[in-house]
Amino acid sequence: MARSLPMQVAALFGAAWALAWLTYGSVSGDALLGFDGYPLIAASAMHSAGDLLGAFGDELMGGRYPDGRFYRPLVHLSFGLDHALGGLDPAQYSRTDLSLAALTATLLGLLAGTLASAWSGARSRTRVLAALCTAGIYLLHHAQLEVVPYAPRRADALALLFVAAAALAARRGARPAWTGALALCALLSKESGVIALPVILAASYARPGADLRAAARATISPTLGLGLGLLARTAVLGGLGGHAESGTPGRESLSAMAGSMAHAMGAAIPGGGLLLGVLVLGGLVTLLRQADHQGRSTALLLLAWAMAGLVITTVSGRFHDWYALTLVAPLALLAGGLLGRGPLGAALAAALTLLVVTGQLVSPQRDTLAVAQEISRDQAERFEALIQATPAGEVVVFEPWVFAVATAPGTPPIFVHAPYSLSALAELTLSTDAVQVFTGRERPAPDPNRLQVQLVPGPPPPATVTPR
């Protein structure tokens, strides 16, 4: 590896980006997947400097999201930048999502290398292997198939990026202002970013010679940063927002969420979550058996990260498979942390790596994503052509309208376009909101100033089922 730190970081990022592109480039970039892509673009489009600042005073999607109220200004900024650079070209959004995954993998790799540097007798080769193993596992875990190909799920990737950056900064003893700013950015990406606080506490405690009092002092600035973010969120939303079912976790909900998270983490892995859990438990025991502070503090960091992610997911009141990305980070750090911890540690790290790679290769979601890309692109092109060719005052039928796609039994459905998605696409295409999209048999009253489009569900066109 290169000698200077900047060159090491550049080399790790370059390798991570290449791996991300090789792994996910074939299943992303041809179309926007997920209900929220076009609404996010419509709400984030920037035409002046005022729009840049306005992102911090706007509700997520400008209130277009029908299932809750959220405040994620950094998501708006990222979509606004993509729109300025590439318009509605899905490849532009894909490049950003690949870069976010690669950057987070780089930060986690650097964190693993930093943790390894404090091990007694750790060699430079061990630190490099720890960094590469951690970055690779983070990128290759099959949970990324639920995030990287979907631009709207960028919020999860952004929040995790800033949590990883905050953990690295805390572990390296950065100035409090840095960790505070990074914690704030995590929260402004997604509310799950509040896990930055316990992660920073544990990462600060992992510093050589640190004690709990010093680690607690390191959380003052992040606490202030998160408090500032919560104040801004409350001011914009008129409250904390969230889904209707968001609230305090109970014992039953915590147990159910843990089961759902375990299933999402191990669903595509041979042996499932049970084998993965056994290896994780063995890895934690291996770290805790070490007599040095670093082994115990590293295990504490991983546990704090995982438990914080589980609790904040439970508070959200619902679960989606892409929420498992929060646990992929500590899993990757565990594998990297086991290298250099004797033959058993190396064997456990190799087994974790093999399982993760196998899960990526055999995941049925890869085939579904390829089909969904074709269906989503076809649907967007047909819808745009229809509204451009039809004058205001007309009522037309758009058929088939494909809501979601699933090509293998037991795999999560891939969402394509909801009615509010196509409404936003119409707004972006015609630069006006004079298109009314509706479903069902009951048509709204005629409006000479608006084009009314009735969505009729149906099977995907045959030409889209087999990817080109």
Radius of gyration based on Cα positions:
23 Å
The backbone outline, from C-alpha atoms, is: globular
Proportion of residues in helical segments: 55-70%
Strand order of the largest sheet: 1-5-4
> Largest sheet, described in full?
3 strands, parallel
Low-pLDDT stretches: none
* Mean pLDDT value: 90
Distance between the termini: 40 Å
Summarize the model shown.
It contains 19 helices and 5 strands. Strand 2 (404-405) and strand 3 (414-415) form a beta hairpin. The relative contact order is 0.12.
Note down, in words, how this protein is organized.
This protein is mostly helical and 468 residues long. It has 2 domains: 5-243 and 251-362, no CATH class; 365-465, no CATH class. The chain is 62% helix and 5% strand. It has 19 helices and 5 strands. The protein has helices spanning 5-24, 37-44, 49-54, 73-86, 90-117, 124-140, 154-171, 176-189, 196-205, 212-217, 220-237, 251-266, 272-288, 293-316, 325-338, 342-362, 365-389, 419-430, 462-465; strands spanning 395-401, 404-405, 414-415, 435-439, 451-457. The strands form 2 sheets. The chain has a 3-stranded parallel β-sheet with strand order 1-5-4, with helices on one face. It starts with a helix and ends with a helix.
